[in-house]
Every structure is written in structure tokens, then in C-alpha cells.
Amino acid sequence: MTTPDPIRRFVEATNAGDTEAxxxxxxxxxxxxxxxxxxHGRDGIARWNRSDNIGVQSNLRIVRIxxxxxxxxxxxxxxxxxxxxxxxxxxxxxxxxxxxxxxx
Length: 104
Known about the structure:
Blueprint: H1 5-16, H2 19-24, E1 26-34, E2 37-40, H3 41-52, E3 59-68, E4 71-79, E5 85-94, E6 97-103
Parallel strand pairs: 1-6
Antiparallel strand pairs: 1-2, 3-4, 4-5, 5-6
């Protein structure tokens, strides 16, 4: 399956360290859950980005992706100065942006 554009841009912005482009991949009222830690709106996601993503020089690679019930389930390999390994990300899209991201 081809990776949808918002998810592709999410990965590319992370890997480029481009916070502005990263935040632009989300809707204004997006929701992000990272192993139960919840972040609301772009301000909340910006905090998560500083502590757990671009702020720790994460590099992402999608291992596989599939769509089920309107949600894109991606297995992602992560390297950087934070979490290293593989994890699952479930993306719910709203048009050309990410409305919900659950990391587990």
C-alpha cells in the first residue's frame, strides 16, 4: 500500500528536523496519544515533538502500513536520541492532515 501523503509528510518532516512542516501535518484540534500520555491540539503536539520526536533527533522509517476501518496502521522503525526500535502508530486522517495519532 502507498503511504498517504499526510503520513509521508509526517515522516519526512521528522527526518528533516522541520518542526514547522511537522506541525502542519496535523489538524488544529488533533489528538496524539503516546503510550497513554495524551496531547491535544497543535500546542500539545508541539510539546510532544520537543520531548519525544524532533527534539531527540528521531528518524522514522515505515516498515509496513495497512488501512483498516478508516485508520492507517503503520509499523515504524525509530532511531535517534530517544526511543530506538519498532512501534505501532495508528493514524486517523481528516482530508490532507492527521486528526488523531495513537502510538503503542
